[in-house]
Design goal:
With 270 residues, this protein is of the alpha/beta class. It has twelve helices and 14 strands.
Length: 270
């Protein structure tokens, strides 16, 4: 049976270490769309940071979706319509900022088409490099940002992020969803937001079956997506916990792992 959707995380899954889709993977994904398969992107990135890849894969031509902000926003890419959206309230954002200040972590969010940061860190420029969005640094991000935000991130060394996630973020459990995307990014979303939740909501809206979907991922924020769909695939470079939950483990993002396994699952040659 043809899957209802084939869903891809972006960073370290669909994209190589050079932050691009390889020609082999791109050509294969264009080929399967021509055969009627529907592709979807699901990323922690902001919507603006996903559009170039969506365009390169011609998702608008074939009619599909992008799920940004770890599932906080879902867009019908063909007509640029937001079909689902959950934001972090201004009050909760201010609380996140206080938490980051208390623990000496850079805090980042998205506001008026820009990445806005307070603080400094060696990884402070990574999000701008990945997404291509402009970034500004402010002295008081609580004063600068005056509305709800799609999500917020704490940026710190890997060991600190792991410690914060393991011991400190339970204080947000009643109000927010918290996950790790990259080892130095601790992400805060509205309660109930996740890639898996976005997939389930889309399936209900568009009368699709999650059991008849394939999803690819590599990191902690991909776990519930891998567990939600009928066929979860971990990249060769994925975290061990993702590999343990997936039905299949393919080659790495730098070895065209996506077409390698899809050629077997779909019986469509590379």
């Amino acid at each position: 049976m043809k899957p209802d959707l084939i869903i891809f995380d972006m960073d370290d899954t669909l994209l190589t270490s050079q932050n691009k889709v390889s020609e082999t993977t791109k050509d294969y994904l264009l080929k399967v769309q021509q055969l009627g398969y529907k592709l979807t992107l699901a990323s922690g990135r902001p919507t603006e940071g996903m559009l170039a890849v969506a365009k390169a894969l011609e998702l608008d031509k074939y009619g599909s979706y992008i799920m940004s902000y770890n599932g906080g926003q879902t867009i019908d890419i063909a007509n640029q319509t937001v079909i689902a959206k959950q934001s972090v309230s201004k009050a909760h954002f201010d609380r996140i900022v206080d938490f980051c200040r208390e623990h000496d972590m850079l805090v980042l969010t998205y506001y008026e088409g820009q990445i806005v940061i307070e603080g400094t860190h060696k990884y402070m420029g990574v999000e701008a490099e990945l997404t291509g969005m402009p970034m500004i640094q402010v002295d008081d991000i609580k004063a600068h940002v005056q509305t709800d935000v799609p999500k917020a991130m704490a940026v710190a060394d890997e060991d600190k992020i792991a410690h914060m996630f393991a011991t400190e973020v339970t204080q947000f459990a009643d109000d927010l969803a918290v996950t790790i995307s990259k080892p130095f990014f601790l992400e805060f979303m509205s309660k109930g937001v996740s890639k898996g939740a976005a997939i389930r909501r889309l399936a209900e809206q568009r009368q699709l079956s999650v059991d008849n979907m394939i999803a690819f991922g590599d990191s902690a924020n991909d776990l519930d997506m891998i567990e939600t769909v009928g066929t979860g695939v971990a990249m060769g470079n994925a975290l061990d916990i993702v590999k343990e939950k997936a039905q299949y483990v393919t080659k790495s993002h730098d070895e065209d792992g996506i077409p390698f396994i899809l050629a077997q699952l779909l019986d469509v040659e590379i």
